[in-house]
Each structure stands twice: as structure tokens, then as C-alpha cells.
């Protein structure tokens, strides 16, 4: 292990930015840093590690377990989407969402949009290398991800104001279809997590939830994920941002 890795692992005097390209052992360093925090007395459930893949989350948790045993199971290790899902399930009753909602991946969502288009009599064309249904999915997702109008329980029609009238009608039908199925797509997870944190009581609860937050691949974090982290980080003792600055 390098001197720089050891220095990072044992650093708890403030927040840190770790420049770590692929293949430099950053997952091990993050795991050992979390383990060191636990050894110093931090409650493992007050540690949040945000990764970008489920595989990375599993690897990090396994490596902490080698040092701290069962305590590793209490660390909150999640991707951004699973973090939002976890938060939303915790607050579902207060914000008008079903606790046992189903998460729709991209393929599920595209299928649902296609079904809505047929019901509305909207013909979406598929070419050899292009798929208009997929394009609509991304337009809807972008509208929700970048929305400034935030509301818990449902996505209001004004979120889709910049879409064409046809796509706007389809977006609203799609959201109603998701709601009828107790479903949320990936963009909904970010949207509703941001919306619920507008509530003062809920926000205060989450501001004080964690003592240490580690965010991997920070260069891939978009503004709305940052806004979510900004709330979670208000009460932390240490924030660690990790990524390849190049």
C-alpha cells in the first residue's frame, strides 16, 4: 500500500478530495477508510458510501467486512438510484407514494411509453438505427431530472412544458400509467427524492442522518444528484469526494 493511500485511510481532520484514476486501488482505500472510521468509534449506520454500480457497492461492503465483520452490513452502501429508492421508501407514507413501489428500468419504461402511445393513437416510428420511443423516454427523463417544479406524490404536467404538445400528452399519460402500476422510473427516483427534501421536517431528518459520506466517481455526478448530496452533507463530520479529475 502506498504512502498516499495510508495517509488518506487515516485522514479524519476534515473533508477530502481524492484524485484516483481507474486501477489505483480506490475501492480498497474507501473501504479501509470506512473501516478506520468504525474502529475510531463511528456508528456504521452513520456512514454512507455512494457508488455508481451495484458491483462496486458489493465489493466495498465485502472489503469493509474483512476489517470490521458484521458491522459492515450496517453501512449504507448504495448507487444514487438505490439511495433515492431507500430514502423514498422510508418517507413514502408522508409524501404520498406507495412504500412497495416497483422500479422501472429503461426497457420497462420504453415498453410502457410504447403502450401509452398506442392507447393515445400516437404513431412513434422505429428506424433501423433509431427508435423514437427511446428518444421520448430520454426527453421525459431529462425533463424530470432538470425540473425546477418539485412536487411529492406526482410529477406535475408543467414539468413537461418544454416538450412538444404530442410528447407532453404522452409524458402525462406515461406518468399516470406508472402511478396506476405503483411504479417509478429512474428519473422519478431522483425527482421525488429532491421533492421530498423541500419539506422542512423531512429535510432536517436527512441533514442529520450521516456522519461520513464517501462519493465515488464524482466526475459523473450531475447537478441534481449534487443537490441531493448537498442536503445529506450538511450535518456530516467528513465528506469524501473521489474521482478521476482528468
The number of domains is: 2
User: If you compute it from the alpha carbons, what radius of gyration comes out, rounded to the nearest whole angstrom?
Assistant: 20 Å
Helix/sheet category: alpha/beta
For the record, the CATH class of the largest domain is Alpha Beta
By DSSP, the count of extended strands is 7
Taken from the alpha-carbon principal axes, the silhouette is: elongated
CATH-scheme architecture of the largest domain? 3-Layer(aba) Sandwich
Main beta sheet strand tally, sense and closure:
5 strands, parallel
Number of helices: 10
Tell me the CATH topology of the largest domain: Rossmann fold
Q: Ends: how far apart? A: 23 Å
In percent, how much strand structure appears in the residues?
5-15%
Please mark out the parts with pLDDT under 50 across 5 or more consecutive residues, or reply none.
Answer: none
| CATH homologous superfamily assignment of the largest domain | P-loop containing nucleotide triphosphate hydrolases
Helix residue percentage: 40-55%
Major sheet strand order: 1-7-6-2-3
Mean pLDDT: 91
Amino acid at each position: 500500500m502506498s504512502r498516499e493511500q495510508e495517509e488518506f485511510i487515516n485522514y479524519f481532520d476534515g473533508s477530502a478530495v481524492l484524485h484516483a484514476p481507474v486501477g489505483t486501488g480506490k475501492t480498497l482505500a474507501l473501504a479501509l477508510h470506512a473501516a478506520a472510521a468504525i474502529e475510531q468509534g463511528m456508528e456504521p449506520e452513520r456512514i454512507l458510501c455512494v457508488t455508481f454500480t451495484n458491483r462496486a457497492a458489493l465489493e466495498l461492503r465485502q472489503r469493509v467486512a474483512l476489517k470490521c465483520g458484521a458491522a459492515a452490513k450496517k453501512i449504507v452502501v448504495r448507487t444514487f438510484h438505490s439511495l433515492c429508492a431507500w430514502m423514498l421508501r422510508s418517507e413514502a407514507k408522508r409524501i404520498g407514494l406507495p412504500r412497495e413501489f416497483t422500479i422501472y428500468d429503461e426497457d420497462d419504461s420504453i415498453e410502457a411509453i410504447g403502450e401509452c402511445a398506442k392507447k393515445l393513437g400516437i404513431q412513434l416510428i422505429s428506424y433501423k438505427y433509431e427508435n423514437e420511443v427511446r428518444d421520448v423516454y430520454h426527453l421525459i427523463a431529462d425533463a424530470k431530472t432538470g425540473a425546477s417544479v418539485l412536487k411529492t406524490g406526482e410529477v406535475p404536467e408543467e414539468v413537461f412544458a418544454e416538450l412538444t404538445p404530442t410528447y407532453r400528452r404522452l409524458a402525462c399519460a406515461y406518468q399516470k400509467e406508472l402511478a396506476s402500476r405503483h411504479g417509478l422510473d429512474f428519473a422519478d427516483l431522483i425527482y421525488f427524492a429532491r421533492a421530498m427534501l423541500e419539506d422542512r421536517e423531512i429535510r432536517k431528518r436527512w441533514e442529520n442522518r450521516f456522519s461520513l459520506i464517501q462519493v465515488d466517481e464524482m466526475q459523473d455526478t450531475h447537478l441534481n444528484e449534487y443537490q441531493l448530496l448537498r442536503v445529506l452533507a450538511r450535518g456530516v463530520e467528513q465528506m469524501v469526494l473521489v474521482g478521476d479529475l482528468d
